[in-house]
Amino acid sequence: MQQVARCFICNMPILQRFSSIFFFGLSGPLLLLFCHLILVIFPISLFASASGGESCTLLHDFEDEHDLERFLTWECHSWYQLDRNHSTHGAHSLRVELYPWEKRRYQGISLAPFTDDVRSWKGWHWLRIDFYNPASTPLSLTCRIDDRRSPPYSDRFNQTFSVPPGPSTLILDLLEMTTSGTGRPLEMGKIRSLLFFVTAPKSKLVFYMDNVRLCR
């Protein structure tokens, strides 16, 4: 049986092709050791350089029952509630339960209408939302953003993404956001609604969301 060289710090196998990579004159095991030492000595500065200087403004963090009435559009076969599990900002997250219904193909949550103070997304670069998927399989979720009242599919933003099991953060680039059919850039000063939905669920689906924010 062939012996595999491993890192004496993390027991990670050192692949043969890895030994051909050079960095500052180091290769193979010495390079792996160098990388470990960098992460041990400089973790704070590395994380600071990744997030330093970024500013965010909060759209929703689901801390008040009254916000559920003000901002959420309630629909049949959907249930929302504040939950103390999986919060990333404040004490609560929003638990969303979606149920199959033969009369409605799309089941989801609508954060609308926005008030005047959060309707303009001008000057912001990203929309970020924290999710938690308690299932063992990914959840296919579609994000829809409207900048006009009840636009057709071709004249609104639509993007389907996969929510992996456990915690994750969705990051959408506002500077590159266009409508699905016409390719028109969204008017960031006139955002009307933000929706998340699934298509024809076959069984009950549960996910958590929190810390809906704009960043730059």
Topology:
Layout: E1 22-23, E2 26-27, H1 28-41, H2 43-51, E3 56-60, H3 65-71, E4 78-83, E5 93-98, E6 106-111, H4 116-119, E7 126-133, E8 139-146, E9 157-163, E10 166-173, E11 193-199, E12 205-215
Antiparallel strand pairs: 1-2, 3-12, 4-5, 5-12, 6-11, 7-10, 7-12, 8-9, 8-11
Keywords summarizing the entry:
Jelly Rolls, alpha+beta, 4-stranded antiparallel β-sheet, 2 domains, globular, single chain, disordered N terminus, 6-stranded antiparallel β-sheet, 216 residues, 4 helices
Which class of the largest domain in CATH terms? Mainly Beta
Give the overall shape: globular
The number of domains: 2
What is the name of the CATH architecture of the largest domain? Answer: Sandwich
CATH topology of the largest domain: Jelly Rolls
For the record, give the distance between the C-alpha atoms at the N and C termini, rounded to a whole number. 53 Å
Give me the CATH superfamily of the largest domain: Galactose-binding domain-like
Mind describing the biggest β-sheet? 6 strands, antiparallel
Identify low-pLDDT runs. 1-29, 34-51
Element-level helix/strand string: EEHHEHEEEHEEEEEE
Mean pLDDT value: 79
Instruction: Give the number of helices.
Output: 4
Q: What percent strand?
A: 35-45%
Helix proportion: 10-25%
